[in-house]
Amino acid sequence: MTQTIAKSLAVAVLVMGHFAGVARAKDPLLSWNDGTTKKSITDFVAKVTTEGSPDFVKPAERIAVFDNDGTLWAEQPMYFQFLFALDRVKALAPQHPEWKDQEPFASLLKGDVKGALAGGQKAMLEIIMATHAGMTTEEFAKTVNEWIATARHPLTKRPYTEMVYQPMLELLAYLRANGFKTFIVSGGGVEFMRPWVETVYGIPPEQVVGSSGVVKFESAGGKAVLMKEAKVEFIDDGPGKPVGINRFIGRRPIMAFGNSDGDLQMLQYTTAGGPAEGSPADGSGSPRFALIVHHTDAEREFAYDRQSHIGKLDKALDEAAAKGWTVVDMRQDWKQVFPSK
Amino acid sequence: MTQTIAKSLAVAVLVMGHFAGVARAKDPLLSWNDGTTKKSITDFVAKVTTEGSPDFVKPAERIAVFDNDGTLWAEQPMYFQFLFALDRVKALAPQHPEWKDQEPFASLLKGDVKGALAGGQKAMLEIIMATHAGMTTEEFAKTVNEWIATARHPLTKRPYTEMVYQPMLELLAYLRANGFKTFIVSGGGVEFMRPWVETVYGIPPEQVVGSSGVVKFESAGGKAVLMKEAKVEFIDDGPGKPVGINRFIGRRPIMAFGNSDGDLQMLQYTTAGGPAEGSPADGSGSPRFALIVHHTDAEREFAYDRQSHIGKLDKALDEAAAKGWTVVDMRQDWKQVFPSK
Known about the structure:
Two copies of one chain form a homodimer. With 341 residues, chain A is α/β, with parallel strands linked by helices. Helices cover 41% and strands 15% of the residues of chain A. In chain A, helix 10 crosses helix 11. The longest helix of chain A has 23 residues, at 3-25. In chain A, 41% of the residues are buried.
């Protein structure tokens, strides 16, 4: 190696160092207003990532779990997966002439969603099953991908993939940059989320925990496929969330993020952990963090909590106050809600 | 930066390059004899990792799934998890005086395993349930860890964590070094494997798919725990393996490794995949790889296949021949079976 090359290398190293400095200086949580909420996050991350700190957690144990509906993306006026199902009912109606006289489909096809849902949970389940079963897992993923690429939110007219919260996207990236492994733990269908979450959130399909239907292996003529059946297998909501976390992840998370009473048990399970593996034996280090996104911004998003049918936040809000969990006041804490167009 | 520092840097870069060269030159599959078996693996890995190759697969899609019993570690004279259960029956017997007159426990406590198993699958399930339920997931993990640290294989007297196959350890590391994400997909209990697989195989708990029992969330006095119940939830064997892969991983693997008929559907599902995402649209690139470990080495390990009660390999061996899957002849293909002491 000549001295000239050596010099160039030295310059390259200097330049790279300079850019690294710039990256460090830039606020990774740019859409969060400064204040106690933001500080509670950055303080926690600092203490679990500082080697030698009594709260240091080794990277393998830095598991962070996120609810999806109402935590990473919006959930009003209805869960987006349910809006997907409604679109599918319309698309599949020509193949189901019997739906014209059969509830909840008859009402739906007349555009009467409220009438269709008069049948309560049973009606909702029928709609989900009619639109989420009877095809292979790969065919279903294709349908989801086509919908997510073309459908628009009924109020904002933006693609659903733009109805995600910019501050939460930054938070996901910030945690990963600090050695965390980020998971979705959602009441939504796992097969509905997996096709698009990697692109939108940077979370690969194998890090998505969700509700699921039964699938059955079928092998005929060399084509080995999995057929989706009209039968619920697992509801990843409420007490199902810690069960799902245990089933899929197998470790107790150290950070959990939710927005409704359906997340309460996940937050309890996360914060009730014993000392994280790798923390000192004296018990000082058992750092756990829970956060609730409180929808307080009727202007930029939606304002709802204790009385809402969707994303009801009541018991978990009381428990957050009692236990000192972080509560995001969307109106106060977020500079920006959705990504810029 | 002075010129001296620049020179030191240049030297450092040269030295690092030298070590990288050495690492490349060293065979990562040292315990595999050269031949068609080894070559089928390295050829496949080369083609899916060579950018511009029609068979190139982007890293996110490089999913490799491994059976555990008989593929990563031994499974004779009995599945090791069953040997764990037998040890637990002995340890728990003082708390269960009724077992003295109750099969299958009575026979077991007299040391008559064969008599205990006369009750067939029902007896086996009773033994598993009696030893794997009635405690929290964390208490169970602790029990497994204590056992794995102290128990010895009945024939070799080595710890079970040394009854793993050295060539497969090298293969796991080799695949990961080539951008693969490695998963276990085993008929064994997921909660039995997770406590130790990270140390032994370098596979984190969240990349383990296995059979499971029902767990229930319980929250009392601020202690949020998951209780293991005596009820089977999921059997990750045979047609359950593709179902488990879909449930936990959500992508079709491109490489699968097994050793018995219980792995057949996993191998079928893996090899029947359409073009991997990221491969060219002309259909040329749909590279899939299946491998079966054939236990042919009575001297260094055990020799068994079509007639064996444990790890029966019959239909899958025929299908491997018909479809050109790689079959490892342990006696011929492996320089070494277990790690050196």
